[in-house]
Amino acid sequence: MTVRVVVADDQTVVREGLVLLLGLLPGVEVAGAARDGEEALRLVAAQRPDVVLMDLRMPRMDGVEATRRIREEHPGVQVVVLTTYSDDESVFSALRAGARGYLTKDADAESLARAIAAVAEGQAHFDPEVQRRLADAVTRRAPPSRGLPDGLTPREAEVLRLIAAGRSNAEIAGELFISAATVKSHINNLFAKAGLRDRAQAVTYAYRHGLAEG
What we know:
CATH architecture of the largest domain: 3-Layer(aba) Sandwich
Strand order of the largest sheet: 2-1-3-4-5-6
Number of domains: 2
Shape: globular
Low-confidence stretches: 141-145
CATH class of the largest domain: Alpha Beta
Helix content: 40-55%
Distance between the termini: 33 Å
Radius of gyration: 17 Å
Mean pLDDT: 88
Number of strands: 6
Largest sheet: 6 strands, parallel
Strand content: 5-15%
């Protein structure tokens, strides 16, 4: 399967470099490149890519607002943030806006390819340093939960733990010895109970409530 990608970055050298790099990756097609969030939104509407690589700090419309608009108006399009910033506020703002992936700009081609492939399949993908910061941040901000939050069952909490560990539905089914349909049912139930929209929010929720490994 070919994954169509739009690049959004206000720095010409970075933007053009990413276009060249993505063009070398197997299974990836560059659908367009934008200089800011407004242009990214127009490109997404016109090209309907699978994934957007989104910088955060851009003029006219920043990456957080552009991500929020894309996820609201084109829910089938996934967003991977690719930015210099890995501070807590940048990470949480991007995730709240609906980003499914978060990489820093020192990521290599292999990491970029993995992130694009993962989010195109509906999974979340985070740079290891970002994931550590996420875990540290939610640990600092929230005390350990007593029991399971929001009425989650032990099985739903186990499914959530595996989502936070980056497992796909098929991998969760194999690890828990249940069917893929049962996994999907558990995910739908825990998303409804916890008010979650997607797997990226589920990862944040799992760490916040001490239901993730590491």
